[in-house]
Amino acid sequence: AERILVHETAATVAAAYSVSRPDSLVFLVAPIADVRYLQGMNGRIPRVYSYLRQQQGGKASTKVTEDAVTTILLNPTAETTLSKSRYMRLEIGTGSKTLKYQAKVSDYIWFSKPPKVNMVSRMMN
């Protein structure tokens, strides 16, 4: 419950800033556990932004969507991507029954030095 409160608060602060400054670029730094698979503040921002726009008398904006929120993981590992193998987990929900709920770990991954070849099973698109 604590993480949900932290994520909702961060999403609300970022969305409120964006609503009051529509042409701004908001940049947040957060631990990997708080942003992987769009399950943290980054996944909540579009919903909160639309709500705040409506509260100000504007239309629910389509300007800030899941596509407008970009997530970059810095130096992720197999463990931080919730993998039970030596490979990084690049997405969840890949079974035939869960494909419509598939979520990627992030939009981009960034390594400060080249990762071990056997850590990344394939290149992300």
Task: Describe the SSE topology.
Elements: H1 2-20, H2 41-55, E1 72-74, E2 91-92, E3 103-104, E4 108-110
Parallel strand pairs: 1-4
Antiparallel strand pairs: 2-3
Helix pairs in contact: 1-2
Order of helices and strands: HHEEEE
Report how far apart the termini are. Answer: 33 Å
Helical coverage, percent range: 25-40%
- Global outline: elongated
Oligomer: single chain
Poorly predicted tracts of residues: none
Helical/strand content category: alpha+beta
Could you tell me the radius of gyration in angstroms? 16 Å
Report strand %.
5-15%
Number of strands: 4
Overall average pLDDT: 83
Description:
By secondary structure, the protein is of the alpha+beta class. The protein contains two helices and four strands, in the order ααββββ. The strands form two sheets. The chain has a two-stranded parallel ribbon with strand order 1-4. Strands 2-3 form a two-stranded antiparallel ribbon. The longest helix is centred in the N-terminal third of the chain and has 19 residues, at 2-20. The mean pLDDT is 83.
